[in-house]
Amino acid sequence: MEAWHDFLVAQVGASAALGGLLFVGLSLNLEKIVSLAGVAERAQITLVMILATLLLGSLLLIPRQEFLPLGAEGLAVGIATVAMGTRFGLRAMHASPPDYRGRVFLSLAFFWAATLPYIIGGLLLLAGHDSGMYWIAGAICVSLIKAMLDAWVLLIEINR
Fold first, then answer.
1. DSSP assignment of 12-61, as one string?
2. How many domains would you assign to the chain?
């Protein structure tokens, strides 16, 4: 796990910075975000994804952990993230106008592609395979990309 230290430190810092910027941006556009159907839920999904990268990165930085706790952390964060994001995504789909639901579903599918690897990585680590860290690293990177794209929509696109 020592080899993952620098990567995890960088991801925790990036997640914390992105989360802070997102909170500021959301507060600036709050009235518009809550007035548009499904947009508040998209903000919730984005915050959940950033929180997952921040929380899991922080947990994985705890020194001298064996595969069992590492896997349990990855699995727990992954399951919670997928469950909460799916709930918010389905609420967004039901709240959105019918002609917008396809876009909401694509966003939800991208969310699943970003976050399901947390669960796979956690399961691999629980089974004693260090390859689980690569799945978690991929989930962190794709989650941050998805969060950045969502942040752009929430902060810029809703004002067009």
1. HHHHHHHHHHHHHHHHHTHHHHHHSTTHHHHHHHHHHHHHHHHHHHHHHT
2. 1
* C-alpha closest to that of 74 among 14, 138, 150, 10: 138
Do 61 and 37 touch, CB atoms closer than 8 A?
A: no
Q: Are 132 and 74 in contact (CB under 8 A)?
A: yes
Quick one: angle between helices 101-126 and 132-155, nearest 10? 160
- Rounded CA separation 87/81 (Å): 10
pLDDT digit string (tens) for 87-97? 999 999 998 88
Domain carrying residue 25: 2-159
**How far is the C-alpha of 4 from the C-alpha of 17, rounded, in Å?**
20
Give dist(CA 27, CA 123) in Å, integer: 37
List, for residues 41-85, the tens digit of each pLDDT value.
989 999 999 999 999 999 999 999 999 999 999 999 999 999 999
Please, is 67 exposed, middle or buried when counting C-beta atoms within 10 Å of its C-beta (0-12, 13-18, 19+)? Answer: middle
